[in-house]
Amino acid sequence: MENLVRMYAEALKFIDQTGIPFKDFHPGVGPYGEPQVLKRTLDYLRKEYPKEFKDAKTKRTPDVLVPNQWALEFKIVRPFGDNGKEAEHWSQNLLHPYSGNVSSIGDIYKLLNLHISERKGILIFTFENDPPVIDLDLIINCFEHISIQLLELPLGKRNVAHCENLIHPVHKKARVFGWEITRY
Question: Which residue among 14, 147, 155, 162 is least enclosed by CB atoms within 10 Å?
């Protein structure tokens, strides 16, 4: 998981540095939607790490399947929009603690019910100001606490990689967090 998190951070940085905007937003990786950023990161990873990602594909469940290696679900945590205003309901994609929803916690349940041989994991991309206006460590800690302590979900050790000096005027830095689902 540690290497996977590092490779995804590298891919985010690469996408950011191309300066290609998503739709009519400012250039940089921060405004990309989940499907678009997953496609672009996977394109990069297939090119740079063909041994690991040659046959990887985006799917509905899981978000990314790396055959014989990983079944991965992803979420983006972005408290501010392209315009610098705080986004409404930005934290619910991470914390909504019920099976069957689209939160990261819901994704853990989805992975637990997925009967495949690949290792399973959750990755979260955070985009934030520099210096941060909202402390995203708090929400990551809440995600872990709810998942592990309250719901007793098998979330493994936290792995994190940083992307600094991004070109977007609001999304100046990113972090990639990843956890393996440790039993299934």
Answer: 162
